[in-house]
Amino acid sequence: QVQLVESGGGLVQPGGSLRLSCVASGSGFALNLMGWYRQAPGKQRELVGTISNIGKANYADSVKGRFTISRDNAKNTVYLQMDSLKPEDTAVYYCYTRVYWTSNEYWGQGTQVTVSS
């Protein structure tokens, strides 16, 4: 069982920045795929991006060039740096992991990001 706890959400103006953090419980963090999903009101949950155990990141086209995912294996933490935020980025953001040894998937409880003037 893995628990994921997100933090860092809030209200930001268009064009602004936020950094989300996600701390994972348990051992083996360094081997696991980590990532972020988001769900806007009335829409399905969508993948924002992932970062592999060797640090290779992939992003959805909608956030490419604006968002950056990174990880600190010593702290069991993954980050989502969000720059040039747009109102359409408003959503609940969920931390995600797929465990290397079992392929089990887990999500955090989510953190609200609101982009509005």
Structural summary, described in words:
This protein is an all-beta fold and 117 residues long. The protein has strands at residues 4-7, 10-12, 18-24, 33-39, 46-51, 57-59, 67-72, 77-82, 91-98, 105-107, 111-115. Strands 2, 4, 5, 6, 9, 10 and 11 form a 7-stranded mixed sheet that branches. A 4-stranded antiparallel sheet has the order 1-3-8-7, with no helix packed on it.
Question: What's the structural blueprint in terms of helices and strands?
Answer:
Blueprint: E1 4-7, E2 10-12, E3 18-24, E4 33-39, E5 46-51, E6 57-59, E7 67-72, E8 77-82, E9 91-98, E10 105-107, E11 111-115
- Uncertain stretches of 5 or more adjacent residues: none
Q: What is the strand tally?
A: 11
Q: What integer is the average pLDDT?
A: 96
What is the gyration radius calculated from CA atoms?
13 Å
Shape: globular
Helical content, roughly?
under 10%
* Helix/strand structural class: mainly beta
Strand-residue fraction? over 45%
Describe the largest sheet: 7 strands, mixed
| Cα-to-Cα separation, first versus last residue | 40 Å
Q: What is the H-and-E element order? A: EEEEEEEEEEE
Given the structure, what is the number of helices?
0
In short:
This protein has 117 residues and is mostly beta strands.
Sum up the structure in keywords.
117 residues, 0% helix, single chain, mainly beta, seven-stranded mixed sheet, 11 strands
